[in-house]
From TrEMBL:
Classification lineage: Bacteria, Pseudomonadati, Pseudomonadota, Alphaproteobacteria, Hyphomicrobiales
Superkingdom of the source species: Bacteria
Taxonomic source organism: Paramesorhizobium deserti
UniProt region (Disordered), positions on chain: 365-385
Keywords, alphabetical: ATP-binding, Nucleotide-binding, Transport
Compartments, record wording: Cell inner membrane
UniProt-listed InterPro entries: AAA+_ATPase (IPR003593), ABC_SmlMolc_Importer (IPR050093), ABC_transporter-like_ATP-bd (IPR003439), ABC_transporter-like_CS (IPR017871), P-loop_NTPase (IPR027417)
Pfam families found in the cross-reference section: ABC_tran
Family, per entry: Belongs to the ABC transporter superfamily.
ABC transporter domain ranges (all copies): 7-237
Signal peptide: none
An annotated GO cellular component: ATP-binding cassette (ABC) transporter complex
Name this polypeptide is given: Fe3+/spermidine/putrescine ABC transporter ATP-binding protein
GO MF term (any one): ABC-type transporter activity
Amino acid sequence: MDNGTFLRIAGLSAGYGATRVLERLDLDIRKGEFVALLGSSGCGKTTLLRAVAGFAKPSAGSIIVAGRDVTRLPPDRRGMAMVFQSYALWSHMTVGQNIGYGLKLKGLPRTEIAQRVGELEEMLGLTGLGSRKPAALSGGQRQRVALGRALAINPQILLLDEPLSNLDARIRLKVRHDISALQKRLGITAVHVTHDREEAMVMADRIVIMDAGRIAQQGTPEEVYNRPASPFVAAFMGAENVLELSGNVDASAVAIKAGANNHRCLLPLGGRTLESGMFEARFRAEAAELMTGDAPAGAPGQALELSGRVEAASYPGGIWRHSIRIGEAQILVDAPRPFEHGSAVRIRIPAEKLFLFNTRSAHERPHAHSLHDGRKGRVLEASET
């Protein structure tokens, strides 16, 4: 085991019946690390968590915790605890009884159970609620009870299966910070499954983005957000605007050719591995600057500039979001003020906020649209990548 690795998942394959979900997946997690498994429904993140917990049997590979192979052990002998999406609280038990249930199964004395339950109630902001039953609690309080029950047995690893998805948005914002702070305070190793990008960014030390049972990319929140390794990751991390460009690459720069709706520009290569030819360019709505159509052009080596017309503007809060027609394509761009419907505009995307990838073959990218061929295409949504 490598120095610092606490949980090792090696060559793990798993599925349901004839359906293979995970295929020889490898993942190392350090002690005390908070790792978020991020991905859309069906990507394999929950299957991976259930395999680690012992609720799904892998067909190949191993799960090692602190040097001990737990692959074939039952869930209660793995030193782990899991918080489920539904919380799975006993409705006939009080808060205190729910939290202390695992300790009771271990046969601990009542006084010791009461002391541990009291400590957890205080730690989780549940003091005074110990005699209530789950039906008398708010969603946030029930979530804390489920977390307390998991922590009561002092697990080596805490597994979280989308535990915040049943909370309303306002409570969810607070509870995600509460869980993250508690995990840091206890120094516990945590693996958290979520489909919510912002939730993963806020809570995790490292994000593991999954796609079709494999790891598409892993890294710190800053790394996966600012340096996506593929079009799929870029789209999943919010860069849903997509264009097709052409250009040439040398040792230090990418020369983007002028098209019907884009200016020629010279962008720094910035460590990207690219070849001359066609590029898939992605960027976020908030990354672009929206200007009037007669605004002066910027320096050619700093940004990609596009020309288009405003089709719609809406106010989601804090900014105005514009739908811009560029040839036959549509993109979304944010601005601090609204631009009139039908007005000619210029869009400037700084080089550091533009993600470039060599395009795949035509059958792999049926929806990509080209600024050099205005007869086809539309914007890819994140769910289509």
